[in-house]
Design brief:
Elements: E1 4-7, E2 14-17, E3 22-26, H1 32-39, E4 45-47, H2 58-61, H3 65-70, E5 75-76, E6 81-85, H4 95-102, E7 107-112, H5 115-129, H6 136-140, H7 149-152, H8 156-164, E8 172-176, H9 177-182, H10 184-194, E9 206-209, E10 215-218, H11 238-259
Parallel strand pairs: 3-6, 3-7, 4-6, 7-8
Antiparallel strand pairs: 1-2, 2-5, 9-10
Bound molecules: adenosine-3'-5'-diphosphate.
Adenosine-3'-5'-diphosphate binds next to helix 1, helix 5, helix 9 and strand 10.
Length: 266
Amino acid sequence: VCIISTIISSSEVTTSKSLPQAIIIGVKKCGTRALLKFLSIHPATAVSSTEIHYFDSPQNFQFGLDWYRNQMPIAKNNQYLTIEKTPHYFIDRQTPARIAHLLPEVKLIVILRDPIIRAISDYVQIKNRHESYPTFDEFISMNNFTRWTPIKIGCYSLYLRRWLKYFPLERIHFVDGENLIQRPWQELESVQKFLNISNHIQQEHFYFNSHKRNFPCIKQPNGCLGSSKGRHHPSISEHTREKLKTLYSTCNQQLKELAQINFSWL
Ligand code: A3P
């Protein structure tokens, strides 16, 4: 990995931009932003502030690797681990081969949550932009509801299979998005281990904010996520829930086997 260094003062402080050593590749609405924010408090990390969309965008991809490097955050000299997140990578067909080819050593992080909750979260985001959108129950009662993207994405095993053609399982770390909300420090402990960085981020860094629907925040100014995260979810009918449970049971079983994980909601 080539590093462009610039001396910014007469002291020893140097800054640089480097290609990421780790990428949060998804999954959309599973807590990707929270995970990145939590990781950002580690002294060894430099994290991107926006989603880069390099590997999944034909336009950005043609700009080349130097362009990609230039999108990375400026890292100070003790920040040796650059991390970017683009949740759409997980479901994009071309991305696994592209990353494997251009960043053969990179570590991948995938955060997953109960696909039913993920679907509702995705729905809420769309509904926010389209007032007259049908209710969630109405969508699920349609004949072709399985083809609706918020539902399809939750069959994680479909997409994971593609990644496993290019990456060994040891290079992919799975984060339980449900546990990241309940006990973030537990998930962070295993992420830090996977990234081979010190176990800096611990329970004492977090508090649960009653004004943020009890989601965890970091004990620092602006330590909570913004208003577009942790939104209120509508309740759904038992019938809808059962239908989705049946739909996802095969996908979840496949996921357990492929990823060798056993999260409580699986
Ligand atoms: P909702 O807003 O639907 O509740 P992503 O960042 O991948 O888009 O995921 C967004 C989801 O992260 C939120 O969906 C929320 O449930 C979840 N989340 C996890 N930890 C959070 C935290 N500490 N603060 C706010 N939202 C969090």
